Each structure stands twice: as structure tokens, then as C-alpha cells.
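=== RUN LOG ===
request id: a7f3
mode: sequence -> structure
chains: 1
length: 201
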Amino acid sequence: MFAVLKTGGKQYKVQAGDILRVEKLAADAGEKIQFNDVLMVGGDSTVVGAPFVEGAAVQADVIDQIKGEKLIKFVKRRRKHSSKRTVGHRQKLTLVRITDILASGADKSGVKAAVGAGSVAAPSEAKPAKKAAKAEAKAEAPAAAAADDLTAINGVGPAAAKKLADAGITSFAQLAAVDVDSFDAVKVKPEWVAQAAELAK
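=== RESULT ===
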């Protein structure tokens, strides 16, 4: 049985027992990980994903965190008084041994998913955050709908309206109730209060 997995922007055809050098993963030596992005599973019957095979995974043991061969980049400009520069680079890699290929039931295996070292969060962690942000936006929508456009008052521009909103004043009625002498959050002019009282009626 074989599988084609995707990790680090590259695709690998693997079988149980294979040793791979892949782009650096956030895992320690001796840890068991699981690649969930499986493009194809072959064996008795071949299953091709669109783009990934549902429920399929490839499990592996992390052998070590290593560095690739040294690559030399040499730049020389062919002129008198020219410059030349030499830069070396060794790519960080993870050495893994493929232990098992699962055709189904990957979500129930309980093995840690393989995540690149540069990734901020796994996609599964990002989805609840997006849902929470949408819920907050929906909760704020009625409050925004109830707010009045304070820029309709002469002398109140977008910047002043934002300062008033930050101070908790979002409607004409709230602005009309403001005491000009004691309100310190924003410098409110008496004519604003008068106009707000007219517009609130």
C-alpha cells in the first residue's frame, strides 16, 4: 500500500518504512505525527482525492531535526572595481520514518497533526476564531444600527464623531443630554448639544 502526501509545498509518494526528509515540522525527535493532506491512496484499490482523500492519513515517527546540504550562492560583477558576494545556506529539515498509512478514520486516531514550523495555527484552530468573530460582528450590528450619524451636526466631522463614539455617545439623544461644563472625554460645543436636541425630536 502506498500514499501520496503533501507537506511543505511538496508531494511525496511513500510506503510504510520509508525515511523522508521534509520541510521543518514543529515536532521533537521521537514524537509521532500524522500527515492529513493525502492526495492519493493506492493498493488493492486506488483512491484519488479532490484535492485530498477524505479520512486518509499517513503516520510517521520523527527521527531528528536536521539541516540539508550547504548551498553556495556566488555573485560577481565582471567590471573593474566590481563587487562579489558569497552567501551560504543550509535548509532546516525534519527526518521522519513512515509507520502507517490509514485509508480511513484519520480523525479518530488521536495522533498529533504534522504542522510546519512557521505556521501560526492549525486550520482547525482558526475556524472557531472566525466563527467567534462573526458572532461578535452580528452582536455589534444592532448597536450600530441604533446609532445616529453624528456628522449630521454642523461642526462634527468623522474624527469628532469617532471620539464621541469612543466616549459612549452614539445618538443625538445622548449628545443632547451632555453637560458641556462637566464632560471631559471630548470637548463638546454648546451648539452641538442644541442641534442634537433638535435632531433627537
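=== NOTES ===
The CA atoms of residues 7 and 22 lie 7 Å apart.
Confidence is low (pLDDT under 50) at residues 141-145.
=== END ===
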